[in-house]
Amino acid sequence: MPSRNTRREFLQNGLTFVSLSLAMPHFLMRAAHAADGSPLAVPSGSPIPSGKILVVLELSGGNDGLNTVVPYADAGYATARPTIGLHSSDVVKLSDKIALHPKMTAFGKMFDKGHLAVVTGVGYPNPNRSHFFSMDIWQTGLTEMNIHDRSGWLARYFDSDGHLKSDPLSGVTVGSALPLALFSETSPCSCIGDGNSFGFRTDLGDTHRQMDTLRALYSHGTVAGTNAEFVRNVGMDAYTASQQIKQAFQKYDNKAGDAAKYPAQNGLANTLKTLAKLISGGIDTKVYYLSMGGFDTHANQPNQHGNLLGDISDAVAAFFDDLEMQGRAQDVVLMTFSEFGRRVKENGSSGTDHGAASVLFVAGPSVKGGIYGQYPSLNDLDDGDLKMNTDFRSVYATLIDKWLGTDSNAILGGKFGHVGFV
Amino acid sequence: MAIPSDDRRRLGHLIRRAGFGARPDEWAHYQKLGVAATTESLLHPELTPDHLSDVSDALDGDYIDHEDLGSVRKWWVYRMLHTHRPLEEKMTLFWHNHFATANYKVDKPQWMWQQNELFRRNALGNFRTLLRGVSRDPAMLVWLDGEQNKKGKPNENYGRELLELFTMGIGGGYTETDVKEGARAFTGWRYDRDAATFMFDADKHDDGIKTFLGQTGNFNGDDIVDIVVRHPSTARFICAKLFRFFVHDSPTKTDLDPLIRVYYQSAFDIRSVVGAMLRSPNFYSDKAMYAKIKSPAEFVLTVLRTLDAPLSCSPNIGDTMRAMGQDLFNPPNVKGWSEGQSWINTMSLLARMNFAGGVVKEMQRHGLFSDRLHTAMSVVAARPNSPDAAVDALWDVLLPGHAPSPATRQALVAYASDDWKPGEPRFDQKAPGLINLILSAPEYQLA
Fold it and tell me: What is the rounded CA–CA span in Å between residue B149 and residue B145?
């Protein structure tokens, strides 16, 4: 089925053979060739995508939930954290009980506008304190490792939908490696680096000639045989996808981008700006996946952690300001997560060790802002860690059912209650 | 030294399928031997000294850290790249995918390395011996929960996969009862965590009577292996899988029956089965030649070997292969990689093209290109002095015996002709770009 973007391009580019072979995925090209390029051969009646987009931001290392969303009114908090505890006079208060880290003023403003949902006490049963195994659980959406059919929860969302499966830009990660969350054997999500580097790269001094020749090598009629023809078709898809990204960058309204005032020297802000370009440029990506490290704060936590949280809050706020000006903010929801929170008691090095339940954020103007879940008690701990009361799969189920509009049952292997943030 | 073009075609095919392509000096050696003698030489790696045995200590000046998966991965790629026993490494790769075990659960790179050495020791050995070894392998015991398999509380994970994936195959004629009874026979097969060795725990072993595939007795794991290797479903399943790996994707009964006979006549000897396959006319049929899609390992290593490139031309080889869909020591699941067309999607194909470009660029940068390339070229012809001759010569070095279509050849000649008047010595300037294009072409993705 054609994506909305492809259909639009198809209409804009006209019906010559050249524009067909350059701009259209092979499944459309085949149909078009079958009818000698007649526009009537393009399958009609395919569903127009809803346009809703999910951005997932992984905070890698185990984010300290207690110093992100602070239970400042709980006397146990100051007792557990004599050195690294945040003072009630500094924090950004969300209620008479909890507050954001002082560096998260931009998130405070989003919360006031009703654009930020704070989900507290999130985790999974029988917490595992290994980064690796806990990240595996969050990324697969399964609490037991499945070595028979291993796949990411977002990849299963794509697999459940034939339309998404056929478009390599349905799921995109900005970075150098595909995360497990987007991995399955059948769902070809794309890892686009910084966006500019996605595509055939050549650095031999004659890029354009190389590019032209490569396109000729992948044109119709160069190879015979099932597997050779298959490779040729995928190559043309890859070319199409890289061209779509280039075009999206060209379409981006730089003035709106400048007006959004993305913070300088903030890596996440740069990445989110890239996303804003792709989104406003009309790329039909449903899920963007980003990862940010540095949260494994065993020592000297306060400065490092504060800077990370400040970066997130500033960058995400600018991202939605930008999208607002581009007219796409209503279509985007951003969720953060981390593999676990940290222990309630600080350690002897002004840091914190691996813990269990934590907090996450869901942001965007389409979100029903507010505080969700019970903040876990600091007096009723599980081996020194907060107890979870919102299963992370409920957060996933909410996003799949209510935002992406697919049935979460099959994807998550069971029914999980919804959290009311969308 | 020129050899008849059909021999060249066959030799190229043999070395791609039973190895990972050849370096220029290896080509010269294999050409002297001819197709038949090369086949026998590949089938008998033990006759060639393992000049890489000390690679387990150091590689490119870095010590191998067996606790680090990146380091273990690099060690194996280095072996595949530099081995003089290519079929041994190719079969090690086959077994890694057959007994697909992943470090994301085992979480002990050293045990993954040990398992890899087990596959290498038995690469072309006896299937029963290999199965007995795999059943005792610490990484496998973690992977399929051997530790949890106890008398009175059997864990069926290994018992089931032994039949479903390792021997008889789905629909091979075993029942749920066979799975359960088989699992009982393996109870108490555990590992010693500190010594990283197999350990039999008699207290946890169920020494009652079991009925397995119609036979009854006080069976242990070895007895189960002995029963299962003899089963006709196992013979067919293993022969078919080897055929799909070495020859083509759709073997018929007529293709497999002679191999099954060899399997039994040789008492489950893998070398005999693979040998029969490589010597059969099937192996060089049109159905087989350039018909399979190269795995990422085959692609990466064929590029590096054919160009005689050092590993330093692609320092992050493990991550590169992961981007191409083959993260060594981390197969996607217990079924292993699906292979074939599943190797190719937009991302993995771009990763292949960009890897090729990176290697060409690095070789050019280090001035390695001209010498090594000319050694490779000398196998075919003198340095070509026209665009047409350059395209034909390079194509034949990289894809021996597989003529390009007129459209493909035309596109490459057009590229080479730019700024090249026939008769001018411009080959050295044009070769890197041409090689990059040929390695990126659809044809080169095929084995």
Answer: 7
| Owner of token pair 């806990």 | A134
Q: Same domain for B84 and B124? A: yes
**Quick one: B356 and B274 in the same domain?**
no
What is the model's pTM?
Answer: 0.86
CB interface of B with A, residues 265-304, below 8 Å: 290-293
Residue given tokens 């804003």 in the structure block = A276
Q: Is the dihedral of CA B86, B87, B92, B97 positive or negative?
A: positive
In a domain, B291, yes or no: no
- Three-state SS across B110-169? HHHHHHHHHHHHCCCCEHHHHHHHHHHCHHHHHHCCHHHCECCECCCHHHHHHHHHHHCC
pLDDT digits (tens, 9 = 90+) for A32-48: 333 333 333 333 333 33
* ipTM of predicted assembly, 2 dp: 0.94
* Residue A20 scores a pLDDT above 60: no
What is the number of structural domains in chain B? 3
Q: Determine whether the interchain pair A238/B445 forms a contact, defined as Cβ–Cβ distance below 8 Å.
A: no
DSSP string, A357-416: -EEEEEESTTS--EEESPPPPSSS-BTTBPPP-EEHHHHHHHIIIIII-S-HHHHHTS--
Q: Which amino acid is at A304?
A: Q
Q: CATH code at A129?
A: 3.40.720
DSSP code at position A127: -
CB atoms within 10 A of CB A224: 9
Phi then psi for residue B130, to 5 deg, are -65, -45
DSSP B36-67: HHHHHHHH-GGGS--TTGGGGTEETTEEP-TT
Give the pair of three-digit tokens for residue B31. Answer: 């050409």
Which residues of chain A have a CB within 8 Å of the CB of B142? none
Pull the structure tokens for residue A378.
Answer: 């600091």
B34/B48 same-domain check: no
Contacts B344 to A, Cβ<8 Å = 230-231, 234
Phi, psi of A58 (to 5 degrees): -85, 125
Domain that holds residue A148: 18-203+241-412
**Do B48 and B36 have their domain in common?**
no
Residue B264 structure tokens: 């039994």
Residues in B touching A150 (Cβ below 8 Å): 332-333
Query: How many domains does chain A divide into?
Result: 1
Would residue A407 count as lying in a domain?
yes
Q: Which tens digit of pLDDT belongs to each residue from A315-334?
A: 999 999 999 999 999 999 99
The CB density around residue B289, as the number of other CB atoms within 10 Å, is 20
Q: Does residue B117 share a domain with residue B62?
A: yes
**Coil vs helix vs strand at B267:** coil
Direct distance between the N- and C-terminal alpha carbons of chain A, in angstroms, rounded to an integer: 28
Integer Cα distance of A263 and A257 in angstroms: 11
- Asked whether the beta carbons of residue A217 and residue B342 sit closer than 8 angstroms, the reply is no
- Nearest C-alpha in B relative to A216: B411
Domain region containing B31: 1-42
